[in-house]
Design goal:
Length: 455
């Protein structure tokens, strides 16, 4: 599919939507509507038959005008992007419901009385799509806060400013952990109940509701979310991602098998099956001679090479808290899929929060706070921009640990990592190349990018 065909397809999808709304109003958006993004277009499939715009997911149940859809938008990969946030700021003079000082501003007491004041107060939301999460050090924690270097002068041990990207509200059936720090996934609770709790807390917190939604409303939100499957469907260079035997796109993903522990490399697979490092098997046929076909052949071959690198390129994994220390092994020879192990999805298939160094002082940018923690028993100090999982467990070993997200639909939702520190997929690849001394060539980097943007 070339660019002209894409434009025609998008126009047709709009016509289909308009035709549908003539019958049922504006409460349902059709499945598989193409949503353009910087490198092609994505699609979403709902097992409920269509995107139900009348769901409680899109209803204002709080006091500040927000809905779940304020921070989880289909066109932005069911998250938000700086470009979309900036457009909303300009068209609303910074008054769109996403701009609320309780968590959208760098500080809840920030001045939002004028347009320029709002532009400054919502600076991280505008620049990186970051929402302010406020958490405190739990009672009886193994560590204490020694000092804070906060450019906004708005953090303390009882109200720590943590700036994080909204995770996508799609592909949730593949989750082993809800939230970056897993705070909605206590041991023994089901995914359904975790999502119910998350929806309630989001309405009370982000939407500033006076009371929790009803059970029926929460069930409606969770049913809406669990029905969604999203993926890139078309790539500007490679064309249709299910062409010539490839298995990209939404249809194949909607049928992808998943259960907790599937393909876990540490032996937690309940079936007893061994770990298979070939986690992604979407584009194997594109790697064969003439496997891509037509003028897209070169681009498709690059995607296939990127998938192969992701699956098989040896990585010496060291210094990763949550893996090396838990196993008592200084280094492990693995691949990208050692951690991104869920087949054709790429997140952890079991809860496995890791610290890969994203929050280290060396990675800090001036727009983020820097916290210094001291472990009470050992005196060891950590300087991090976000303590991550440690604010949930109170354990020193969890400082800086976060879950790995689902990798599908990446092209629609830059920037990347929990703190938006990678503006694009090239910066993601550069980080891993630097962190794990991969020695990737420019061609290998480009191939990895070509693959990741098709997910």
């Amino acid at each position: 599919m070339d660019a002209n065909k894409l434009r025609i397809a998008i126009a047709l999808s709009v016509l289909v939507f308009m035709a549908g709304t003539a019958v049922v109003g504006t409460t349902r958006s059709p499945n598989m509507k193409l949503q353009p993004n910087p490198t092609g277009a994505a699609q979403t499939f709902s097992s409920n038959g269509a995107i139900d715009l009348g769901s409680a997911f899109f209803k204002n149940m709080g006091t500040n005008g927000r809905t779940c859809g304020s921070c989880h938008r289909e066109a932005e990969g069911w998250s938000i992007t700086p470009a979309d946030v900036q457009a909303r700021f300009e068209t609303s003079n910074g008054l769109d419901p996403i701009f609320r000082f309780n968590d959208g501003a760098v500080c809840p007491t920030a001045d939002v009385s004028t347009l320029e004041a709002r532009r400054k107060a919502y600076g991280l939301l505008l620049a990186k799509g970051l929402i302010r999460v406020s958490l405190s050090i739990p009672p009886n924690a193994e560590f204490q806060l020694v000092s804070v270097d906060d450019p906004y002068h708005c953090s303390s041990a009882s109200d720590m400013a943590l700036f994080r990207r909204p995770l996508p509200a799609t592909n949730l059936r593949f989750l082993s952990t809800v939230m970056w720090d897993g705070r909605q996934s206590p041991p023994g609770r089901s995914l359904h109940d975790n999502l119910m709790s998350q929806a309630a807390d989001a309405t009370l917190g982000h939407a500033q509701a006076a009371s929790s939604p009803t059970t029926a409303q929460l069930e409606d939100i969770v049913n809406f979310e669990m029905a969604l499957t999203s993926a890139q469907a078309w790539d500007t260079a490679a064309g249709e991602l299910n062409a010539h035997g490839a298995k990209g796109g939404v249809k194949a993903l909607s049928k992808q098998d998943f259960f907790i522990g599937i393909n876990d490399p540490l032996g937690n697979n309940p079936t007893g099956a061994p770990f298979d490092p070939n986690v992604f098997t979407l584009y194997a046929k594109w790697g064969k001679p003439n496997g891509g076909g037509g003028k897209e052949n070169g681009a498709r071959a690059a995607v296939a090479r990127g998938e192969q690198i992701f699956n098989t390129r040896p990585i010496v994994i060291s210094g990763v808290s949550g893996l090396n220390d838990e196993l008592g092994v200084a280094s492990i020879t693995g691949t990208c899929t050692t951690c991104h192990d869920s087949p054709n999805v790429g997140n952890h298939s079991v809860p496995a929060p890791l610290n890969i160094g994203l929050v280290d002082e060396s990675e800090r940018t001036p727009d983020l706070p820097l916290y210094t923690f001291r472990c009470i028993a050992t005196g060891q100090e950590f300087k991090v921009t976000d303590p991550g999982r440690a604010l949930i467990t109170g354990k020193c070993k969890d400082i800086g640990r976060f879950k790995g997200p689902v990798l599908r639909g990446l092209a629609a939702r830059a920037p990347y990592f929990h703190n938006g520190s990678a503006a694009n997929l090239g910066e993601v690849v550069d980080f891993y190349d630097r962190r794990f001394h991969l020695g990737l060539t420019q061609q290998e980097k480009q191939d990895l990018i070509a693959f990741l943007q098709t997910l």
